[in-house]
Amino acid sequence: MKNRNILILPIMLLLFNNIIAQETVSVKEKSWYVPDYVKAQFAGNIGLFSVGAGYQLFDKVLSSELLYGFVPKSASKAENIHLITIKNTFPIYRKKIGENLTITPIAGIATTLDIGTTSFTTLPSKYPEGYYVPTAVHFTLFGGVMVHKDFKKPKIFKGVDFYVELGTVETYLWYALATEEVDLVDVFSTSIGVNFYF
Question: Whole-model pTM?
Fold first, then answer.
């Protein structure tokens, strides 16, 4: 009986050790809801400054981000503007240009909701029906180029993207195509940004 108890103790310790080891591994794995990267962008029709987080989806065929953008009074010449954007970016192809560098042409579309006080999603009753289109939601089309760098010895971040984009808002594009008063070159704007990967 004593011999059996002596054998049970190491077996229990071995099982307990395996359970602890499995828990440690699962803690290190990233949960599905944890973003793949954080982002900061300057300009680009989604705020003078915007920040947020993103996910790489479908084996990195799509990057989808949720961003908060801000335009201060000094830039808007009116009131502070607050924007919420869902931005979807598609890499066209990837080309390695060095041991840790990759260059990627990109294109995409963003949907932006202006959560300020001067915009509306439904026409206010003071206007006749069909007088104005909703001003709170806009779609931005963009294209650009991104350079990705992997870090050899990551501490906090595994890698970083730097990108430049050229884009326009759908209403700007419509005015440029529908009227002669707005030139096509005037409706495009550039943006720069950075993504930090976990």
Answer: 0.77
